[in-house]
Design goal:
Layout: E1 4-7, E2 10-11, H1 17-28, E3 33-41, E4 46-53, H2 55-72, E5 88-97, H3 101-119, E6 123-125, H4 138-142, H5 145-152, E7 174-178, E8 183-189, H6 194-204, E9 214-221, E10 226-233, H7 241-254, E11 259-265, H8 270-281, H9 292-301
Parallel strand pairs: 5-7, 6-7
Antiparallel strand pairs: 1-4, 1-5, 2-4, 2-5, 3-4, 8-10, 8-11, 9-10
Helix pairs in contact: 1-2, 2-3, 6-7
Length: 303
Amino acid sequence: MKKVIESVPNFSEGRREDVVKEIVRQAEETENVWVFDWSMDHDHNRSVVTIVGDPDHVGDAVFKMAKKAVELIDLRQHTGGHPRMGAVDVIPFVPIKNSSEDECIELSRKIGKRIGTELEVPVYLYEKSAVSQERSNLSEIRKGQFEGFFEKIKSPKWKPDFGPSVVHPTAGVVAIGAREYLIAFNVNLGTKNLEIANKIARAVRYSSGGYRFVKAMGVDLKEKGIVQVSMNMTNYKKTPLFRVFETIKREAERYGVSVVGSEIVGMIPMDALVRTVKYYLGVDDFKNERVIEYRLLDEISGS
């Protein structure tokens, strides 16, 4: 049976559309790979691309995208609201259908070695691919960001898994690994006060006492004149979106601020939306199979 995996590489460019399109084109022109979604954000200065296909071809597409990013992005000229350490900042692989976590781990090592050798960019394996516990958390690897990595990489503790032990002068370093579904979920607040967003982020993120599977930070959306609680939801089954959203609304009320919108960056599993519908509409016994498009695709694929 055909194996299918997902990869969601993040690139440190969200303002030059021509550059982002050129990176995306590398995947579009790769056989047996489909670009499901791509987006760019000016304030974060970051783009996220979702590609799906068989493991070998997805690996090829990711490498070509990384190569183009190294050619076109200079982090010495990069500023933005999102922390970053590389031109291609992170490359996750996610098993989707007839594929396994172990296969994604193997692919992450294969592509990591290739990027380290051919592009001369230091590579750190993270999440399920990590060789040590301290490297499993992407936030720990990214601490210090691009500018701080020139000193950080000198420590034996932070010797790269692949590639040179010196930071690429313009492309930085990259994290590559296998992981479960991650939902990039952002909530916008009707205020310009970044400190309020930071306080709410601290209330919901795990590292400061919040929900176990939430990473969060406050971001200033200067173009929109508002601030945002920007989050990575690393396990939507154990920490559902609706619970975090409701907590943010309650926390915002404490400061006399309203929630003015939210956004999902990239793709999202249908199951996460079904769980949200069940909560807000109070629908009993609602399952993925009750969604007509889900059943249609399921029948067509013969699975």
